[in-house]
Write a structure and sequence with these properties.
alpha/beta, binds NADP nicotinamide-adenine-dinucleotide phosphate, two-stranded parallel ribbon, binds guanosine-5'-diphosphate-alpha-D-mannose, seven-stranded parallel β-sheet, single chain, GDP-mannose 4,6-dehydratase activity, 10 helices, EC 4.2.1.47
Length: 322
């Protein structure tokens, strides 16, 4: 039985990846940071809460990261833990830098010293492209991050590349574009919109305040994207891969799809609130997943319309039960 360690297992991707690895017969360990309230709801939603070995730890605490690597003796480590909300990174730039940046070194160093055969996946991000330097971004596009989050993740990306080149570790970096699901955190724009549309439809909310609705994102489904993570660690050689759909859409159009699905016109409810604009915006992201398709045989299976409908259906049911 293969052993895997997932950091960030209580997050959206952690829950989908835990399900995927358990279905493949892995023993799954999860690094979980101490929280004062329940953080395992996504694992319950995925029906995997009881099947995971939980290890206490925090990415900012090198000792706990090291202990988790030694205790789980992993064949594969998936580093998904992060302060992942871009907007919050301007308010917590140092924490974001430690967890999303230096935390990666804690993990790589533990692997180098105690488990050098372990294969490593780093959750890198299209936010590293920021102020885009090419119309469609791929593995060769120069980076230009636009937030403390993007800057911290760029450090995490390059330290992964550096440990691969310096110590011959099987360390891969997945440069993933936005991916969503019914398990997405409520602060991210897709879930904020599907939750609000469901509440408005059911008379529990009157309007929805948003920021820059002209921003464009390349949105995919988290369930498809965790398969790409796993595939990267099954290759003979470690490498970097862009994972995206190759389609970009405005926040405005995403709102239209969500509200349409419940028979409402988003224009009647969406208000623009400057409080949700960012100090520096990433206006557009559009990925080119050709390498992932060629080398990994990976293709996205879920288009935006299907994804938003899936999220709307889940939120309509959840809001009705409240
Ligand atoms: P998410 O839902 O925000 O999950 C983040 C996870 O990290 C949670 O389990 C969280 O634990 C954990 N975490 C936060 N701080 C930690 C710390 N100091 N020590 C240990 N664990 C900590 O994020 P996601 O959407 O699943 O994304 C997974 C990863 O992919 C992240 O690294 C993100 O930056 C990256 N990424 C995401 C996307 C996307 O569109 N979703 C795209 C590209 C890259 P708690 O639940 O206890 O807070
Ligand atoms: N969250 C939010 N709330 N975003 C809004 C709002 C709002 O009210 N109004 C407009 N937006 C715009 C943001 O300005 C941004 O341009 C876009 O919607 C998407 O915002 P988020 O859903 O918060 O995601 P993100 O693109 O900033 O970051 C996500 O994707 C990255 C990959 O590109 C996160 O998952 C990151 O962790 C991930 O790395």
């Amino acid at each position: 039985m293969k052993s895997a360690l997932i950091t960030g297992i209580t997050g959206q991707d952690g829950a989908y990846l835990a399900r995927l690895l358990l279905d493949k017969g892995y023993k799954v360990h999860g690094l979980v940071a101490r929280r004062s309230s329940d953080s395992r709801w996504r694992l319950r939603e995925m029906g995997v809460e009881a099947d995971i070995v939980y290890l206490d730890g925090d990415m900012a605490d090198a000792c706990s990261v090291q202990r988790a690597v030694i205790q789980s003796a992993p064949d594969e480590v998936y580093n998904l833990a992060a302060q992942s909300f871009v907007a919050a990174s301007w308010n917590q730039p140092v924490t974001t830098g430690i967890v999303d940046g230096l935390g990666v070194t804690h993990l790589l160093e533990a692997i180098r010293q105690f488990s050098p055969h372990t294969r490593f996946y780093q959750a890198s991000t299209s936010e590293m492209f920021g102020l885009i330097q090419a119309e469609q971004q791929d593995e060769n596009t120069p980076f230009y991050p636009r937030s403390p989050y993007g800057v911290a993740k760029l450090y995490g990306h390059w330290i992964t590349v550096n440990y691969r080149e310096s110590f011959d570790l099987h360390a891969s970096s997945g440069i993933l574009f936005n991916h969503e699901s019914p398990l997405r955190g409520i602060e991210f724009v897709t879930r904020k919109v599907t939750d609000a549309a469901a509440r408005i439809k059911q008379g529990k909310q009157q309007e929805l305040a948003l920021g820059n609705i002209d921003a464009k994102r390349d949105w995919g489904f988290a369930g498809d994207y965790v398969e790409a993570m796993w595939l990267m660690l099954q290759q003979d050689k470690p490498d970097d891969f862009v994972v995206a759909t190759g389609v970009t859409t405005t926040v405005r159009e995403m709102c239209r799809i969500a509200f349409d699905h419940v028979g409402l016109n988003y224009r009647d409810y969406v208000k623009i609130d400057p409080a949700f604009f960012r100090p520096a915006e990433v206006e557009v992201l559009l990925g080119n997943p050709a390498k992932a398709q060629r080398v990994l045989g990976w293709k996205p299976k879920t288009d935006l319309d299907t994804l938003i409908r899936m999220m709307m259906d889940a939120d309509m049911k959840r809001v009705a039960k409240e």
